[in-house]
Write a structure and sequence with these properties.
28% strand; 10-stranded mixed sheet; alpha+beta
Amino acid sequence: MDNEHILGIRDLVYPGAVLEYEIPGGTPAEERARAYLTDPDSFDPPAPRLAATVMLLSKSKPHRRYRMSGGAEDRSVKVLHPEEGPVDVFMLRRASAMAFVPDAVVFPGGGMDERDVVCDIPWEGPAVAEWAAFMGCAESTAKGVLVAAARELFEESGILLAGPAGGVATDEAGDHWMAAREKVASRAVSFGEFLAERGWALRSDLLSLQSHWVTPPCEPKRYDTYFFTARLPEGQHADGRTSEAVEAGWLSPQEALSRLDEGRHLLVPPTISNVTTLAAASSVDAACERSFTGHVRPVPALRDGRVVFRSVVR
């Protein structure tokens, strides 16, 4: 272990690398990790819930930030001028009342729903079997995760990676579009039913798999999350109208990391790692085409008496 080259959470990871990141001392997470190291057999870790998140990307330019309150947009809309850079990413700050990572700044995403798997959804792009082989999972998992990625992006930002044959839908103004999002979010209709009613297909070719993270086994709430990138479709506008977030907007990856360093934003380790990858991209095209960085499954370990999470990236 001591002779290995160890990467930190702010390094670019890749398959075969060893990643370690420290757990803040005196926190419940550290206490759980130490207890796990002392007696791992005493833990009965919950099965991680399959989830998907989407890093929505746009070429850097001034964007609007929407301040939210309970999912309803108020009138305090500010125009931001982020640091110059080739890529901006759309992010949301989670509400303080959320059970999982409250106040954290995250990408749109969430847990897979059973109907994401069983729905008869119109499809374009690589076949589910091809996705499953690339992701290293069952076909049912691949389908459910990809549908969840597109659905959650639609629910939380209004961006729709779907449309008529060979195309992508453009924003619909007025209450109709928002009403459709609310029906999907409330599970009144499945995402597949929503698309089928309009004769649209999910464009899986607009998603690019970037990484895969599984929450450590000592944590009480665990997720098995696939991170994708997607380009902002022409004619669509992200708004962040979701009750799960209190703020949403576009940031350069460099600005997101600067705000983390300044203590203005809370980013969890998978987000830090993926933002670091985005910060190294020379363009939106490069960010979407960057090779898969690997499967990360951290477990507690000791490094010079300190508790860390450690993973060999697969």
